[in-house]
Every structure is written in structure tokens, then in C-alpha cells.
Amino acid sequence: MTLVQTRGAAPPVRRNVPGRIRVISGITVAALALLFAALAVGSSSARDGLRVIGRDAGPQVVATAGLYLALSDMDAQVANMLVMGDQYTRQRAEALDQYERRRTEANQALLKAFELSGDNPAERRTVESVLDGLGRYERLAGQALLLDERSAHPPGPPPREVVQTYRSATDLMRLELLPQAYNLTLETGTIVRSTYDEKALMVPLVRGAVLVAGLIALGCLIWLQVFLARRFRRVFGPALLVATVTTAVSLFFGVNVLGQDEEALRTAKSAGFDSVLTLARARAISNSMQGDESRYLLDQERADTYEHTYLDKSLSVIYFDAGNLDAYHEKVAERSDDFLGLLGPELVGMEGEDVMAAYRDFQAADMTFRRLALDGRANDAVAARLGPVTSAFHSFDQAMVQLADRHQSVFTAAIDTGESALNNLWRLLPYAIGAIGLLVIAGVWPRLKEYR
After folding, report:
1. Where, by residue number, does the polypeptide cross the bilayer (predicted)?
2. How far apart, in whole angstroms, are the C-alpha atoms of residue 37 and residue 88?
3. CA atoms of 428 and 418, how far apart (whole Å)
4. Radius of gyration of the chain (CA)
5. Based on the number of CB atoms within 10 Å of its own CB, is 255 exposed (0-12), middle (13-18) or buried (19 or more)?
6. What is the pLDDT of residues 275-317, one digit of tens each?
7. 10 Å Cβ neighbour count for 299?
8. CB under 8 Å, gap of 24 or more: what pairs does 168-174 form?
9. Are residues 318 and 343 in contact, defined by beta-carbon separation less than 8 angstroms?
10. 5, 226, 319, 416 - which has most CB atoms within 10 Å?
11. Of 17 and 276, which is predicted with more confidence?
12. Are the CB atoms for 67 and 110 separated by under 8 Å?
């Protein structure tokens, strides 16, 4: 028996065409949604990394690193005032002003450290411990300065009572406060390191996901156009062609922006933040070194200890293979570039030459100063400590500041570049999403209307 087709019913193949168009269009829209969702996730992750490293935790960690410098300089200024005796009135007033400035800086750095600690009880306890210890230090330092003024001694070592009081203060600073300050910087620095490690892994993965999602979306758009062209025996529709081109441009722009942000994060962390933080630590340790010079004059019983401490700190800043301070002075004077230490990686190339030259001058001034002290010429040693040695140290410190400023410029430029690229992406992305959506509808809707 022959089956007769019902009059008015559409052929099966023709009846299935709208359904296939809807399925292919739905897959295409889903692929486009996946592409833009991946772009949103990737850009959000990159922006979060740039914000934490460049605007929030990064600058605050560097500021927290200034706590060690402020504390060590407070102790150095007290030692300077004690060896001045009843002379050097102007220098004593300047040292006292510097002491007050450093105390303010220390309090500000502690406030930033407390803000960074968040809900971490260990870090908060460390901040509170430093605050408590700083109060005890100030009381002891104030007592030593008061006793020193009353003694009216000539330049050089003060009376034993003054030395003993200062010992209690400097032991508190060197054995408790400075190690806590250094650990506090290391602890707060983990915020930046963990954020960078996370984003350094996340952003490339999402960038790859964006590329895959974009290729799938382009494939789906081409599939939809080919299907419509074959089914309706027409050339490719202009709306879908424009949608395809817009999607390709969005894919290229998005992948490029995420690549820029990945590079910006790497540059900001490695060539910016790490170097700035390293130089901040080197400045703090170097400042403590020049404080040891005054303590070397101040406390005759501990002179050898302060000399060894000075050497240890010198080796940590710029390392040469030297067993004693005389040998170290010789190694520095040889102008060898075969050095390691905290500043080692930062002094490679032309940028580090000024820092190394200033460091040589500082160590040469220290050598002359110690010879005067060993010859028993206390007044001349104090004059050298407050004159050529201090001048050479300030030149060295300023050279480190200038190098840190250059790295800070790299850091700021990298953060600005990354954020600017993201801002441009988010200005264009909503328009691209809306335009592609309208173009897909404009390309598909007329074909579906033909089946009504």
C-alpha cells in the first residue's frame, strides 16, 4: 500500500531545518558566552593581582621594611649623641631631630603592618610586641641621654653609668626589636609572594582557556554560516560575517591584554618590587652598620664585638671572601666585581656602579676612622665619625635611594601598563558582546522567519 503524504505538511528534512538552526545557534551563543566569561575571569584575576602587588600590599610591605631602618637609625642617633660629649652642639641637635623623625616613621610603619596583618593573630602579636618594646627602648635611651648631659664629658666614651644604661637600650633594640621588625617584613611580604604565585599560574591558564574558547566560538560561527549558506543556497550573510570578524578581533585583543598583564605582573614583581624591597633591607642593614661605628667608640669593653658585628653586616650587604675587617677593606678597595650578598644582584650593570663606588668610599672612610680609634685619638676618631664617615655613608645611602627610585619607576610603569590595558579591554568588551549578539540574531532571525 502506498502512503500518501498529507496535504500541507512540510517534508521531514524541511521541518528539521529550524530546529537545527536553533541548535547550532545555541551552541554558537554558548561558545561566545564561554569566551567572554573566560575573558572576564582572566581580566578580573589579573586586575586583582595588579591591585594587591601595585596598590595595596606591595607598597605597604615596602613601607613596613622601613621599620627596620627607622628603628636602627634611632639607636644609631642615640649612640652618636653619646659620643659627642660636651661639644658638637649643632650635630647633637640634628641627631635629636633625626631621632624624632625616625620614631614617627617607625610608628607609621607599625600602623601599616597592623593593617596588613588582618586577622592573623601571630602578626598582630608581633606588632604589639614591637610597640611595647619600642616604649621600653625610648625610656632607656632617654635615661642614657639625660645621664650623658649631666656628665659633661669630652668627645669619646661617656662615663660607665651612661654606657651601662645605653647597653640595656641597644641590647633591647638589637636582640629583640630589630629581629622582630625584620620578621614582620618577611611575614607581610608573603602576601605579595603568594598573590604573585597564584596569579602567575592563573593568568596563563585563563589566557589559554580564552584562546580555546575563542577558537571554538569562531568555529561555531563558521559552522552556522556554512550551514545557512548550503541550506538556503545563498552566499554568506553579512551580519554573521561581521560577527565572526568582531569575535576574532575580541579574541586577539583579549589574549593580547592578558599577555600584557602577565608580563606586567612579572616585571612589577621581579624587576620592581623585589629590587625595591631588597634595597630597602640593604639600606636598613647599612644604617645599622654605621651605628656600630659609634657603638665601637662608645663602649670600649664591647669594641671587638661591635667590630665583628659591623663585619657581619658588611658581608651580608656585599659579600667578599674575607676573614676579618682588614681583609674585607682590602677586598673592597681592589674594585673586584666578584661579590655576592644582598646587593649583589642589584649591582650588576651600569646602574649599580654608583652604588658600589659609594660603598668603597664608605669602607675607606671606616678604615681611616678605626685607625684613629686604635691610636687612642678619641677626639679625632669622633670628628672622623661625624664628618668624613657620615658624609661617605650618606653618599652611599643616597646612591641606593636613587637605584631604588629607578626600580620603583619600573614597578609603577608595569602596574600602570597592566591596568591601562585592562581598562581598554573593559571599555570595548561590553560593546563587543552587544554587537556580536545583535549580529547573530540579525543573521539567524530572517532564516527562521521563512519557516513561519
Report:
1. 20-41, 209-229, 235-259, 428-448
2. 69
3. 16
4. 34
5. middle
6. 888 898 899 899 999 999 999 999 989 999 999 999 999 999 9
7. 23
8. 168/140, 169/75, 169/78, 169/137, 169/140, 169/141, 169/144, 170/75, 170/78, 170/79, 170/295, 172/133, 172/136, 172/137, 172/140, 173/71, 173/72, 173/74, 173/75, 173/137, 174/75
9. yes
10. 319
11. 276
12. yes
Q: Phi-psi bin for 335: left (phi > 0), alpha (psi -120 to 50), beta?
A: left
Q: Select the highest-mean-pLDDT range: 45-54, 267-276, 386-395, 442-451.
A: 386-395
User: For residue 251, what are the CA distances in angstroms to 90, 248, 441?
Assistant: 67, 5, 20
| Among candidate residues 323, 318, 329, 243, the one with its CA nearest the CA of residue 279 | 318
Q: Under DSSP, is residue 447 helix (H, G, I), strand (E, B) or coil?
A: helix
338 φ, ψ (degrees, to nearest 5): -90, 75
Q: Within 13 Å of residue 366, how many CA atoms lie on the same side as its CB?
A: 27
Burial zone of 110 (CB within 10 Å; 0-12 exposed, 13-18 middle, 19+ buried): buried
Q: Which residue has the cell 666578584?
A: 338
**What is the phi/psi pair of residue 233, to 5°?**
50, 50
Average model confidence (pLDDT) for the chain? 86
- Cα 24 to Cα 405: distance, rounded to the nearest angstrom: 57
Q: Which regions of 156-236 does DSSP assign to beta strands (E)?
A: none
**Cell numbers given for 108:** 607609621
